[in-house]
Write a sequence for this structure.
C-alpha cells in the first residue's frame, strides 16, 4: 500500500504540472496535442499500477494439455474485431487460457469462465479453482490477461481485457459447443470487471463475484485519501461495474470478506443494492475474518455458499 501511495504521489505531481501547462498554453493547437500525449503517458503509468503484469515462460501448475489458445484478429484497420475464420485477416494477438476438466464430476454439463485478480496469473488461480471443483460440479476455463503468464503482448489495459473477455466467451461457447444455459461467469477482485462486463452483455446461467468494486475510479479515490481523489478526477474509467451491473439479468452471488481493506465490503454491498433494483435473484455473502488475499483459507465456506445459491453446481444429494 505504501508503494501504491508513492506511485500515486508521482502521478499526482505530473498531473499538477499538466494542469499548470494547460492553463498557460491551452490556446495553442500544437500544445493541445502535446497535452494529449502527456495524458496518454499518465494513463499508461496508471495501467502499470493497476495491472502489475507477471510474465513467465511456463506455468508450473497447469499442464500443456490443459493450455489452450485462440486468436484475436482484425479483418481491416478500423473494423470490429473478427474471429479467426475471417478472410483477409491480420493477426493481432494470441490469447492463452486453461481448460480444467473436473475429475471429481467428469459428467458435469456446467462450465465456469473465470477471471483472476491482478496480482496473480491463471497458474496461481488454478489452485483456488481446482479446490472449488472438488465439491462443485463444473469444468473451468481460466482466462489469462495480456503480459501475464505466457500471454505475450505489448501492453495490459482494461480495453484489451474487456475485448478478450467477450471473445473468450464466444470462443468457448462455439469451440466446445456449450449452451449459454450451462455457463457461469466467475470473477475475483480486478477480474470482477470483465466478469460483470460479460454478464451484462451475454446470456449466462449465473454470475459469481468475489471482492467486487464499484469502479476503478471509485476504488482509487478511496485508496489514498486526497491523492487518490485527485488522480481519479483525471483518469479514464477502466471497469465501471456500477453501471454494468444494472444490465445483468441472471442470478448473481456476491462474496466479500469483512476484513478486506484493499476493496472494502461496502463496494459489494453497494453493487448488490444497485442490482436489487433490477434483479431480485441476487445474494450477498459477507465472510468475517476474510481479507483480500486469504480466500484460499475459505474454500470450504465459499464452495458451500456457491452450492447453496446455485443448486446445479452442488454435489448430488446435497
Amino acid at each position: 500500500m505504501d508503494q501504491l501511495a508513492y506511485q500515486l504521489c508521482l502521478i499526482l505531481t505530473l498531473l499538477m504540472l499538466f494542469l499548470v501547462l494547460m492553463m498557460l498554453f491551452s490556446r495553442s493547437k500544437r500544445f493541445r496535442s502535446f497535452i494529449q500525449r502527456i495524458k496518454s503517458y499518465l494513463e499508461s503509468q496508471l495501467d502499470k499500477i493497476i495491472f502489475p503484469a507477471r510474465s513467465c515462460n511456463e506455468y508450473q501448475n497447469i499442464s500443456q494439455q490443459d493450455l489452450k489458445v485462440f486468436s484475436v484478429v482484425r479483418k481491416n484497420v478500423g473494423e470490429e474485431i473478427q474471429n479467426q475464420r475471417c478472410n483477409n485477416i491480420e493477426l493481432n494477438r494470441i490469447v492463452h487460457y486453461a481448460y480444467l476438466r473436473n475429475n471429481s464430476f467428469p459428467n458435469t454439463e456446467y462450465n465456469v469462465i473465470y477471471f483472476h485478480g491482478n496480482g496473480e496469473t491463471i497458474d496461481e488461480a488454478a489452485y483456488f479453482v481446482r479446490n472449488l471443483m472438488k465439491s462443485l460440479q463444473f469444468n473451468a476455463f481460466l482466462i489469462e490477461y495480456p503480459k501475464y503468464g505466457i500471454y505475450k503482448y505489448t501492453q495490459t489495459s482494461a480495453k484489451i481485457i474487456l475485448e478478450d473477455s467477450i471473445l473468450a466467451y464466444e470462443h468457448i461457447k462455439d469451440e466446445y459447443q456449450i449452451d449459454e444455459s450451462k455457463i457461469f461467469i466467475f470473477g475475483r477482485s480486478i477480474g470482477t470487471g470483465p466478469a460483470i462486463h460479460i454478464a451484462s452483455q451475454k446470456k449466462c446461467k449465473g454470475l459469481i463475484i468475489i471482492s467486487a468494486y464499484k469502479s476503478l475510479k471509485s476504488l482509487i479515490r478511496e485508496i489514498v485519501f486526497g491523492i487518490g481523489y485527485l488522480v481519479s478526477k483525471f483518469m479514464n474509467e477502466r471497469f465501471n461495474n456500477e453501471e454494468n451491473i444494472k444490465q445483468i439479468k441472471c442470478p448473481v452471488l456476491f462474496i466479500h470478506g469483512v476484513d478486506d481493506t484493499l476493496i472494502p465490503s461496502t463496494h459489494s454491498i453497494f453493487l448488490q443494492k444497485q442490482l436489487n433494483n433490477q434483479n431480485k435473484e441476487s445474494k450477498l455473502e459477507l465472510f468475517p475474518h476474510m481479507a483480500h488475499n486469504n480466500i484460499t483459507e475459505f474454500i470450504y465456506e465459499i464452495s458451500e455458499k456457491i452450492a447453496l445459491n446455485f443448486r446445479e453446481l452442488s454435489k448430488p444429494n446435497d
In short: Residues 2-25 form the longest helix (24 residues).
